[in-house]
Specification:
Blueprint lengths: L1 H8 L13 H13 L3 H14 L4 H14 L2 H14 L5 H17 L1 H21 L6
């Protein structure tokens, strides 16, 4: 019963046949879904577009942005890495990748951040306690 309720809440995939659409039409549908903030459907349309033409970099870029908006940073990173390898020239890819690396690293290693915060606070307490303060 619970599984049926969860399946009913999933969005339906876009209803179109990729055999009759060009990659530009699939891209435009994906772009429309992305602008309407329907990122899952945008990703499905863009996947169809990339099946028709895997070298369509703009579609791959928009797919990466859709994956980012869905919270799939690893998938977005993979798409951005592929764009970077195939055709460099998108300026913000390096910036996004660096942000993703930091985010995914910290989400896996949150205890390191907690330990670093503890060390900084301990250092501040030691400095405040033992370093003499000047009176002006």
């Amino acid at each position: 019963m619970l599984l049926e309720a969860q399946n009913d809440s999933l969005p339906a995939p876009p209803s179109f046949n990729t055999d009759t659409l060009t990659n530009a039409e699939c891209y435009n549908r994906g772009l429309n879904f992305y602008q309407a903030e329907e990122f899952l459907q945008a990703g499905l349309c863009l996947d169809s577009c990339l099946m028709l033409d895997s070298s369509f970099v703009e579609a791959r870029y928009l797919k990466a942005l859709s994956l980012e908006k869905q919270g799939d940073l690893k998938g977005a990173m993979a798409e951005f890495e592929r764009i970077k390898a195939e055709r460099p020239g998108f300026e913000d890819i390096d910036k996004r990748l660096n942000t993703y690396y930091i985010t995914t690293y910290l989400s896996k290693k949150w205890y390191y951040m907690l330990a670093m915060l503890f060390v900084v606070i301990l250092f501040m307490v030691v400095v405040a306690r033992f370093v003499p303060h000047r009176k002006w």
